[in-house]
């Protein structure tokens, strides 16, 4: 017994020599060489937390969703201390100060990590290996990355996140959310930099990009779905002339059978003159929070009339004020983001400013505005987050339980919690700009922005007809499909572009609406798992070097490969990875890996579907909420077993977050040539599909859904 006590005392003395370990919420705090280091388990991730000026509890950040503790056990084998969870372990050596990350199988993912403090900065460093993805599009439009940025700009975002193909993801949080962490992979080491004497580095084992995305949304928040109508086509322009013009455009869309779900209005909907020449003191009589009577003399009735035709109202908003009296109020209360400059931008992070903004915006929502287009909010990194916070809160007051949707020119981490779209800025009307769009949107997908969009046709200039048509065709396969144009250019209304142009764009729009059951279900998949709607091929074929940085073709979900024409002339090559593929339009079977040359007419799009895909297709409708008695079509692409969860809900509320959905799980048994399905969930609205036509090649069979079923071929 005396010998045992002596051994215990010796062990305790040895441990005291190395470190002092303190239990803390969600983890431990260890003293290492005079510095306190926190190791925490939260939101299914590890957090390495450094703070050289106070207790190193994890830094609070709006980027992190509601924090939940992850079960863990403490590791205490001096000089190693750490925490172990179901998803791995994080260790620090209190003798050397080095730290390591391990996966659940005890494989080392990061070893010999270190950290450094200086007077006003912190760095976290570890040996570089592998290839990184993520971090947005501000430093590069390539998918593979060697660094991140710390700002937002016109259609650009730098996100302090990465996934590394050696098997882990990382996300940095700094003391100031408006001065985000950055990482740089150079000189055989990866360095995270923070502009303060404190740092959080969240880490989690992630063997695939899917695993990285799942961890990212567990940490920063699930991507809420926009309303279902936002998955349709959204028509925007700068230059709506008056109320008669709006009515005529609506009539043209409906009479020409051009599907559309929303009109998006620029400056002219609320003011007679853009504010770009307004001085810092503001302009007397400037309209910031009203309807322009030239366009909307009777806004409530006119918006109701639009909705009766299936068209929603989206209005542009700017983060600044133009009216001199409103600016006086904002300045006196300290509500401007940069009061020392000529800026007229509101500081939406101020709770009083948000409340004041909401009070003035409320009458516009009460008259029927459905959603907002938030432009030019890059004055500080978190502007769009706080701006959307105000709009989200106000919408919940005026229209409780109605889904928030905004289109924004940049994003920061966590903004996906709003049901938030980002478009890639004010781009040129050129083939080069068209080719850049999927680069931007795929980078958005890899950085946590699930609803990417662009100005179809480009903003500046008037495109050639062929360019616009090909842009529409590419837009079919973007998460959000929206066109837009500058003053003085030809509007991107399909009926203005000749009979052949209109016919080709109509065909593209009809395909967009046919795909709605599929893309909307992918939105639910994104919410539940973090898997993006628009995916780079590398997500499905990580071992194929040909797709490691491919951006001119991509996947919708796992099964639909879009390879639209991004250049003049109708010709391109298409790479099909190792799999069996079917031409969506002809049904021709192609075995990959293979590069094929295609030559397409103006109204044709290269689209391929992977073997094992179960593809639900809607009848063609003119807007997403239009009722149809035609059956849902289920197209089966044989060669492999397949499964798909088609999710239905009311399309406008947040009830889906509480499980009020109807999920039809379709399963294809390739050997038995049998399609079976099971239906689950409490939702039973009148908009659910009742009948189904099942298509396998040239064979068709009819059935009823709403209950479990089976069809044999």
UniProtKB/TrEMBL annotation:
**Glycosyl hydrolase family 31 C-terminal domain location:** 530-615
* Glycoside hydrolase family 31 TIM barrel domain boundaries: 223-522
Query: Which Gene Ontology terms cover its molecular function?
Result: hydrolase activity, hydrolyzing O-glycosyl compounds
For this protein, the record's Pfam families field holds:
DUF5110, Glyco_hydro_31_2nd, Glyco_hydro_31_3rd
Per UniProt, residues of the DUF5110 domain are 631-696
Q: Where is the signal peptide?
A: 1-19
Which controlled-vocabulary keywords does the entry list?
A: Glycosidase, Hydrolase, Signal
GO terms under biological process: carbohydrate metabolic process
Could you say which protein family the record assigns here? Belongs to the glycosyl hydrolase 31 family.
Q: What is this protein called?
A: Alpha-glucosidase
Species for this entry? Chitinophaga sancti
